[in-house]
Amino acid sequence: MVLLAHVLGPAGRGEYFLFVAAVALLARLVDLGMSPSAVVFASRYPGALGGIHRRLIAGVLALWLVALVAGGIVLSLARQPFGDLPQERIALAFGVLPLAMYEQIWVHLMVGIRRVVAMNVVQACAGFGMLVANVVFVVLQPGGVAAAVLVYCGVLLLKTPIMGTLAWRSSAREDTGEPVPSLRELISFSLRGYPNALAALSWSRVPAFVLDFFHGAGAVGLFSVAQQVLEQLQLPIQATQDAIYQNVARLPRDSATTAMNRYLRTAVWAMLPLVLICGILAPWAVPLVFGSPFAGSAPVFQILLFSLLASVVPALLSPYFFGQLQRPGLASSVAWIRVLLALALSFALAQPFAELGVATALAVADVCSTLLILGLYVHIAATSVRLAILPRSSDFGEVLRRV
Length: 403
Known about the structure:
The protein is an all-alpha fold. It has 15 helices and no strands.
C-alpha cells in the first residue's frame, strides 16, 4: 500500500483501488452468500469438510459462468468505461472472479475449522510476494497502474492452488464419514446470509465509486489510503471475531450472552486508546509514510476513526446473531440500513466536500447502525447496555484465557 502510494500518486492509487474494489464487490455479489455459510457448516460438520468443500467449488464455477455471460452482455451494450475503470480492466476483473470467490470461501473454511494461523501464513506470504513483484514491475520497471493490476491478479492466481491444497489436506485429516449437509441446506443458509455479506462490503467500497463519479481517481486515491490504513487497524477485531465464533455459537444461550458481553466490553475499551493515539498522530504520520501528496488523507483518516471504534460492536456481535441466534436476516437488515444511509449521505456530501464528505457519510452510518444493532442485542439477549459496554477489572484476563 505504501509503495504503490509513493510510485503511483493519488490518481494512480485511486485507479488501482477501484479495480481491486470492483473485484471484491463482484466476488461478494456473485457468490450468493456461500462464503459466510462456509464458516458455519465447516464448524458444525468438520467431519464432512471434504464434501462441503467440493460442493462450494462447484457452486463457484457455476455462478462464475452465469456472471461471465451477464457481464459480457453488459460490457457489449455499454461500450464505454465505467468512471476511471476502462472496459479491459472490467473484463480482467471478470476473468479473475472465480479466484477471488474461492479465496473468500477458503478463508471462511479455515476459520470454521480453526486453522487461522495457517490462513494468516498464506495471506502473509502472498502479501510479501505481491510486495516483491511490485518492486520489480512497478518501481524498477515503471509499469504504472497496469503493472500493479497484473501483479494483483498474478498473485491471486498463484496462491489459489496453495489454498486448495491446504483445504484438501485439512478435509482428509478431519474426515470422519459424517454426512454432508444437503445442497438445499447449503443454498438456503447461504441465501439467508447473502444480504448481510453483500452489505458489509458494499458499505466500505461503493462510496468510493460515488466519489470517483464526482471528483475522479485523485480524490479516490486520498480516500482509499485512509480507508485501507483503517482496515489494517481492524485486523485485531476480525481476528477476535474469528477466535470467538465457535465458542459463542456452541455455548448455551445464557453462557453465550455472558461471554459476548465480556468480549464487547474488552474490545471496545481496548480499541479506545488506539483510536485516540492514531487521531493525534495522523496529521504528522500520514504525509511522512505516504508522501506529501497524501497529506489530504490525514483528516479523512481522523474522521474514519469514529467508524473504527463503532465497528467493534457489530463485528463481534456477528457470531452471536449468526452462530448463536441463527438469525442472519436480522443482521442483514441492520447492515443494509447502514449501506443505504451511507450511500444517501455520500451522494449528498461527496460533491461539496469530496473525500471528507464520503468519510463523514461512512462514520455517521457506522455509528447509527452500531446503536441499532446494540439495541437489538440488548433486547433479544435480555441483557443491558451496562453489562455490554462498561468494563470490569477481570475482563481482560478472562477473555485472554477463553480466546
